[in-house]
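Methods — Computational structure assignment.
A single polypeptide chain was analysed. Its primary sequence is given first, followed by the predicted tertiary structure written as structure tokens.
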Amino acid sequence: MELVEIEKIAQHLGASQVHTPEPLQSLWSGYGKIWRLPLDGLSFPSVIVKQINPPGGASGLESAAHPRGWGGTLSHQRKLYSYGVEMRFYEYLQQAPISRSTPARVPEPLYLKESPAGWLFVLEDLDASGFAKRTSAPSQQEVRACLRWLARFHARHMEQQPQGLWAQGNYWHLSTRPDELRAMGDSPLKAAAASIDAKLKGARFQTWIHGDAKIANFCLPEDWLQEVEEEIGVAAVDFQYVGAGAGIVDIAYFFSSIWNDEGCEKYVPEALDYYFDALVQELPQWSQADWQALEKEWRFLYPFAWADFLRFLEGWAPAHGKIHPYSQRLTAEALAKLSP
């Protein structure tokens, strides 16, 4: 990170002193880095700085090497657009802020900058705000907290137009993955890819979906009190793929990130019930008829969400561990529903 940016950040926030930034991680394909920047003189001890400097700048055509070999202009342009979407999402939050007391937390945007060189996000440090835990094996309590976050996010943005965001949320949707589709072997899933995509895009009930709602993008509190579970919230990060969609797409993808084949078979039924119970609580203004119609539609689309994700995986990484009997069974269900 260039010193001039550090000084600009400190000046913008009104910090009395700035300390050496701590590198946290590099972004996918080397498009940038994330840092923790300690500061003095503020009500918080540090901020998170996400700095994106892609090859060729924010509008360049030059692409970087991809960890799995999926490089090229289309991949590069998708990433550039995704960072622009994330900027628009945080700009939206600045206009319609979410209270820090809400159980569905996102990092507060403190300073945003877009330039020909790339994007700069200065965000609330969620670790310092009490959400310091990350896990790949969440407890039932933690799973429920994440599902409540998703229910609140979906309810908050129900039937809102995603201005400046993805017209279709999630990072694997068909229109942005023609290379992966071509890489698939001939199969009923490949043949039905457009029909599955149409089912999801044609949902009557649309909201904003997170688009990358894996467990790694949830920040959890370290201290959980069982007796006050419903009052404990989590936070989420990484909003590059926010856009329109049926909320069940986020839910299927979230399940894929925490459970294997056996786990999905065992835990999904109860977890789906829990999500819909949480969602209806967030939509008290809805009529019973509308609510029942939403739940019926999204449950119907659940196998299609899995099939759509499996279509991406089979082209992108055909040996991926998420291609397992459960995801294949749900895909078969979706294909059967397409049959006349």
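Note: The first helix runs from residue 3 to 13.
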